[in-house]
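Hi W., the zinc ion complex you wanted:
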Amino acid sequence: MSELPAWLRGVLVGGTAVLLFALETRQALRAPRREKRSVHTSRNLAIAGLAGVAMMMVETPLLRHVSRHVEARNWGLAPLVTRDPVLRVVVAVLLLDYGLYLWHVLTHRVPVLWRFHMVHHVDLDLDASTALRFHAGEMLLSVPWRLAQACIAGAGPMAVSVWQTLLFVSILFHHSNVRLPIGVERRLRLVIATPRLHGIHHRPEASCLNSNWSSGLSVWDLVHGTHCWKEDAQLATGVPGHLDPTDVTLRRMLALPFQVTAV
Ligand SMILES: [Zn+2]
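Structure:
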């Protein structure tokens, strides 16, 4: 099976970003902001641009190559579960989602990974642009894991492209600063990661930081006992020691993994 068409991926991801940006303006979840929105968004897009170049040069060609091999040779768990090609994609996407949960745990537990993942966490104003704010080094360090995920899950090019598209939509959504009706979010957080739920993961307190690692379905946190739900969305986000706007300039963010003592 080939990949999802690039135009469809673009429409889904781009449409989600535009919609969330508009909703953040109309119905903010966390207010007031710590930084001017234009400054904050520009910085996050600059960090994201560097990460995007790294991904396009390294991850994209390698993952495409490996996923084609996986499909041609029937590697991985999905072909063992079902012979139906559509169900294979579904199973592989679920396994990729679980693999990313495990990777996210590692980025908090392994000191060298945390140095890079912290660049994502020190953001003082969580919004959809935070979803893109990953240090290029973290993206490069994740490539071997990503390739192993595809091999173990049995993810061919279609499964990888479906997962990447859903993941992109999901991370934009659950990092967004959009206020949903509390009754809706109470139910929705039992199925997928939501803005309030993931906002808890971005709080400075260790008990919050070590919860809500799911990036797609929230079932992984529920089964591992790491699901934490609090309805007060107004508490600060960030990392202790980096809670002032002067701590989070672009230059400091790019240098951060190479300067700090791992927590
Ligand atoms: Zn995290």
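Residues 37-73 form the longest helix (37 residues).

W.
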